[in-house]
What we know:
With 236 residues, the chain is α/β, with parallel strands linked by helices. The protein has two domains: 1-99, no CATH class; 101-137 and 166-198 and 211-236, Alpha-Beta Complex (UDP-galactose 4-epimerase, domain 1). The protein contains eight helices and eleven strands. The chain has helices at residues 7-16, 37-52, 76-89, 112-122, 139-151, 170-181, 201-210, 218-227; strands at residues 2-3, 22-25, 58-64, 94-99, 101-103, 126-129, 133-134, 136-138, 159-161, 168-169, 187-190. A five-stranded parallel sheet has the order 1-2-3-4-9, sandwiched between helices. Strands 5-8 form a two-stranded parallel sheet. It has a two-stranded parallel ribbon with strand order 6-11. Helix 3 (76-89) links the parallel strand 3 and strand 4 (94-99). Helix 1 packs parallel to helix 5 and helix 6 packs across helix 8 (218-227). The longest helix is centred in the N-terminal third of the chain and has 16 residues, at 37-52.
Amino acid sequence: MIIGRGLVATAFSGQWQHDPGTVIVAAGVSNSAEHDRAAFEREEALLDEVFASDVQRHIVYFGSCAVGNPDERKTPYLQHKAAMEARVLADPRGRVFRLPQVVGEGGNPHTLTNFLCARILSGEPFDVWAKAERNLIDIQDVAALGTHVLQHAEDYPRMMSLADIQSTNMLQIVRCMESVLGRAANCRVLEQGVAFPIDTRDCQRAAMDCGIPLGDGYLARLLARYYAGQAVPPTR
């Protein structure tokens, strides 16, 4: 059973939409800049409804890798995510997949990669925090890894990150997007930001079993897959 209609819900629907014993909760607050308490309360109420049922064997919630970063500013969104993760794990049926920046077709125009693509193609100026790191993963890989973990639930912890095995400096991400698009960014580099460490040991095990080549070259392949079609054609 899938709850939600967005990027994550769509990716998991093929395998889990008609599974009565597993509910994938892929709806709720997705905007990391959210401050509206009402939005948080709607997600809390949704989880209350899910946990009130005694049918499911597995209840899957998507948390945030940023919750586990001690240097990340604790925004209302991250505080909410941390509380929801704890709520899910308090039930023995609960399982949390922490996600970093997820990349896929379409999606929210305000995601990191969609933002970078739009700004670079338009030539609009933007700032890059040189000391900041982010971690990007393909939504299709999230679905493949998550499905593998659910099918081998006894081999994995109930909370784990589904992420690339290494986070990447923001300036490197911008340079990679420039290469894919064939256009230079109009950006100002600021010496700000923090590292983004993620424990990916369990994800690495799953990736090896699934044949997903995380690590070196993954970011370039990922951005090329979704953004190469928007590249600037070569001039003659």
